[in-house]
Amino acid sequence: MGAGKRGVLTAAVTVVCAVTVLAVPGTAFAAPTPPPDPGTTASVTVVTSDVELEAVRKKLDKLYRAAAKATDEYNAAEEKARQQTAQVVRLAKKIVEGREKLDDLKDRAGAAAAAQYRGGGLPPEARLVLSDDPQDFLDGAGRVRQEQHAAKGMLGEMTRTQRDLEEYAEDAREQMRKLEVGRKVKAAAQKRVERQIEAAEKLEAELEQEEKERLARLERQAAARAQATWLSSGVLDELTSKATAQGREAVAYATAQIGKPYQWGAEGPNTFDCSGLTSQAWLAAGKTIPRTSQMQWQHLKRVDVEDMRPGDLIIYWADASHVGMYVGDGVMVHAPRPGRTVTLAGAGSMPILGVVRPDPAAE
């Protein structure tokens, strides 16, 4: 391999390595707070009434919702980084192939020049004029035209190849710039997630065990009230749609994950966040859907709540920051939040923004 080719391959490998570094995901969770030194007394907030605990519940809900929104931003940046990484790799490959093609064209052009030099330095037209044989003259005229056409074609191909290389290089630089911007967006989102989760965990850590149990009871009661209100609206009265074959596969995958811990930014197989669970469930059913709950809301077909069927995705909150999968009978499966596991819950236990369908063609 020539020095030029080795340089090109080295440059391409450097590009790919740089992409790999940029694409490495951040740490999933902040380091746990160290325990207080012996002899010190930890600050404990004593909560004595359900009214105060309800205020804590609402504050925790607000913190975890903010974390969920930041998680969606992180996941979106991660997904975009994957796509841009693949694009840079493709461009790097094209650059290597283009340089090899250009080197080959230059070698051929050099061989033609050497052949002309060996012929006495005269161009083909001059040698033709000096020919003594008329038949050679006539045969040579055709060869000259062919050689001239080939030389012109080679020069044109060299020019096009050089232009393509410049475009590939510019595209690669632009994708690398976007990757760097995306890396900063992802890092900022990660900090927001960790900050919100840390604040929530600190708030829960200040509760006594008995207060934590009462808080969990209040959470269940709030979800049950929301579900009862949703069901009393009659939303399920006319619900008769049955799952498609793909929908049943997606539901089977999602419900098989029940009991696995929530972890923001995770797509399985041992931990999940909310959209990681739904996107992987549909991938297992043979359908690729957007990674985040916001992108699922934006890009998948929307259907009325009254028309939803098992496998459809229920998008929650006005900012589309949470998603669950409908499994039937007014129930959905979802990965709730940090500190919780994948579980079944009432489909109306949180404010519903809308319903989307990953497989609209399978009517």
Briefly characterize the structure.
It is built from 8 helices and 6 strands.
Describe what you observe in this structure.
The chain is elongated. The N terminus is likely disordered. The protein has eight helices and six strands. The relative contact order is 0.12. It has a six-stranded antiparallel beta sheet. By secondary structure, it is α+β, with helices and mostly antiparallel strands. The longest helix is centred in the middle third of the chain and has 72 residues. Strand 2 and strand 3 form a beta hairpin.
How would you describe this structure in keywords?
elongated, alpha+beta, 363 residues, six-stranded antiparallel sheet, 8% strand
Derived structural class:
alpha+beta
The neighbouring-strand order within the major sheet is: 1-6-2-3-4-5
Q: Got a strand count?
A: 6
Number of helices: 8
Mean pLDDT: 78
Helix content: 55-70%
Percent range for β-strand residues: 5-15%
Q: Kindly report how far apart the N and C termini lie.
A: 57 Å
Q: What does the radius of gyration come to?
A: 32 Å
- Element order: H for helix, E for strand: HHHHHHHHEEEEEE
Unreliable segments of 5+ consecutive residues: 1-47
How would you characterize the largest beta sheet?
6 strands, antiparallel
Give the overall shape, derived from the CA principal axes. elongated
